[in-house]
Amino acid sequence: MVANFDLDVTLPLHLCDLAWIAATWALWTHRSFPVALTFLWGLTLTIQGVVTPSLNEDFPHVRYVAFWALHLLIVWAAVYLVAGLRLAPRWRDYRAAVLTTLGWAGATYLFNVVAGTNYGYLVRKPRSSALDLLGPWPWYVAQEIAILLAAWALLTLAAQWWRRAGSRSGAHRVEAAVDVQDLAGGRREEV
Fold first, then answer.
1. What is residue 181's three-state secondary structure?
2. At what angle do helices 139-169 and 32-40 cross, to 10 degrees?
3. Is the model's pLDDT at 91 over the cut of 90?
4. Where are the alpha helices (DSSP H) in the chain?
């Protein structure tokens, strides 16, 4: 980072730079908020990076390898958390993810204006991406937000359905209740 520092790309201000942190947090703790961030960011914004990568380096450059490893592992984590572990985000997690993302966008936009950068592509579109299908700046940002809100709502709904379908079939469901009577002391313990 010190030898190759470039203010335009080196700082961890792209959403995918935060998504891997959320994915690590979610995989480690299984808490609903980082699961929601990983799932929603991973299956929409990170996928966009995979489909239309914005890279200035080729293989075997460390940024090239890091880009693909980071993006593909975020997507894998998102699928594993929801489809594998059935840790579906709830509607409160959807709201928290929306507010977190809007907070990130506001702070990152301000940084971009002050530093003359384009993190999150909030100031201008990258060379080629799905954003090319949307209008010019600033309209593409507003359109992207509307599309994300709708897509995330559909993903949350699908994840809720997936979770309910799994609980009805008994997949990944373990329940145990044991009452133990302590014959000597006459106490009752629930385990």
1. strand
2. 120
3. yes
4. 15-29, 32-40, 47-51, 62-79, 91-115, 139-169
- Cα separation, 137 vs 186, whole angstroms: 74
Per-residue buried b or exposed e for 164-186, using 16+ beta carbons within 10 Å of the residue's own CB: eebeeeeeeeeeeeeeeeeeeee
Give the CB-side neighbour count of residue 102, counting CA atoms within 13 A. 11
Q: Write the burial class of residue 110 (CB in 10 Å: 0-12 exposed, 13-18 middle, 19+ buried).
A: exposed
The pLDDT tens digits for 56-90 are 777 887 778 888 888 999 999 999 999 889 898 99
Q: Please state, in angstroms and rounded to a whole number, the distance separating the CA atoms of residues 48 and 63.
A: 18
B/e letters for 15-30, b = 16+ CB within 10 Å, e = fewer, are: bbebbbebbebbbeee
CB atoms under 10 Å from CB of 116, counted, come to 10
pLDDT number for residue 113:
96
Please name the amino acid found at residue 140.
Y
pTM greater than 0.90 (yes/no): no
For 1, residues 6+ apart whose C-beta sits below 8 A from its C-beta are 10
- Residue 35's closest CA among 3, 104, 67, 83? 83
Summarize pLDDT for 139-161 with one digit per residue, the tens.
999 999 999 999 999 999 998 88
Within 10 angstroms of residue 86's Cβ, the number of other Cβ atoms is 17
